[in-house]
Amino acid sequence: MLESNVEGVEQSVSTGTLPEWERVDSLVVASHERNRACRDGAVADYIPVLARADPELFGLCVVEVDGGVHVAGQADVEFSIQSISKAFVYALVCEEYGHAAVADLVGVNNTGLAFNSVMAIELNDGHPMNPMVNAGALATTALMPGSTPDEQWKAVQSGLSAFAGRALEVDEEVYQSEAATNTRNRAIAGLLESYGRIDRHPQQVVDVYTRQCSLRVSARDLALMGATLADGGVNPVTGQRVVSADVCRDTLAVLAANGLYERSGEWLFEIGLPGKSGVSGGLLTVSPGKAGIGAFSPRLDRAGNSVRGQQATAYLSRVLGLNIFASQACAPQAGPAGAR
Predict the structure, then answer these.
(1) Exposure of 255 by Cβ count < 10 A (0-12 exposed, 13-18 middle, 19+ buried)?
(2) pLDDT tens digits along 84-95
(3) N or C: which terminal CB in the chain sees fewer CB atoms within 10 Å?
(4) CB–CB of 204/149 below 8 Å?
(5) What gap in Å lies between CA 180 and CA 186, rounded to an integer?
(6) What CATH number labels 21-319?
(7) Domain positions in the chain
(8) What confidence tens digit (pLDDT) does each residue in 274-315 have?
């Protein structure tokens, strides 16, 4: 792991501003309108209850770091958060244990393999590699504070609720459906235990993780949760500090590298923002210092990412100037070369 020897150094941040409120509002509506006719992809069917999702649903929301909200479509329809929860549990664990400890145990590097790969664990001597694949997410959930699984679950629920600015509840039907079919996650947890990567009962860890993925959110919730990460850990609507600015930086870096699984490189190349997808059709994107974007559309590509959500976010990234890699040539300054 690369050591960043910057302790005691005053940090500056690189952020910017969004266009005026009315323009952002109109562009969110335009993004929804131009992508709602897309029928590419298919709903997830390996979890029975998700196979019943209405493929026509499509919601989009942008929440600015000053609390401004822009919505289009079914932005308030609730769905299970699924893998997007990984980002926020990772942030809570980093807040508890710190940058180095969590990075050492869970890792930050992309596996290049599917999100539920067992091979990735074996190829890396039992190391989960990053918290956005299932192995890393289970190892991260196992680190949540609490002496019992119930205490850990309450810490997860209250933590994610603080990000969302409201009390999030479990979708019991989704939880029961996933609990009956999560044999692969149970196997992954047992394998992690055999390598000493989790020190709690593996099946109890899986149960907490399954509940975590079953929390109900909307595109509006995701946008506010993302805006909290964009705002240095302060929820811009409630004003509550949820995590530190350093934790937000670490979380967004991990999302940029791993948030869309084996498609993360393509996502970063095209959209240029940290993001995280979920198999229910949710998509979270964060523009540091500017806004969070939440999208919901159940049709997924083969990697498990919302098709409409990706297209709508790509449009907003371009028209709102969100891509963190974009720049323009500096205008020449008058005076001698090198003068300040």
Answers:
(1) buried
(2) 999 999 999 999
(3) C
(4) yes
(5) 11
(6) 3.40.710.10
(7) 21-319
(8) 999 999 999 999 999 999 999 999 999 988 899 999 999 999
The beta-strand segments (E) located in 176-335 are 216-217, 275-277, 282-287, 291-296
Question: What is the distance between the alpha carbons of residues 267 and 311, in angstroms, rounded to a whole number?
Answer: 11
**Active-site annotation, residues:** 83, 86, 209, 261, 279
The answer to whether 226 touches 98, Cβ cutoff 8 Å, is no
- ∠ CA 185-78-245, nearest 5°, is 75
Q: Burial level of 241, CB count in 10 A (0-12/13-18/19+)?
A: middle
| Six token digits for residue 145 | 């504070």
- Cβ-contact 236, 228 below 8 angstroms: yes
The length of the chain is 340
- CA distances to 1, 275, 291 from 126, in Å: 17, 26, 36
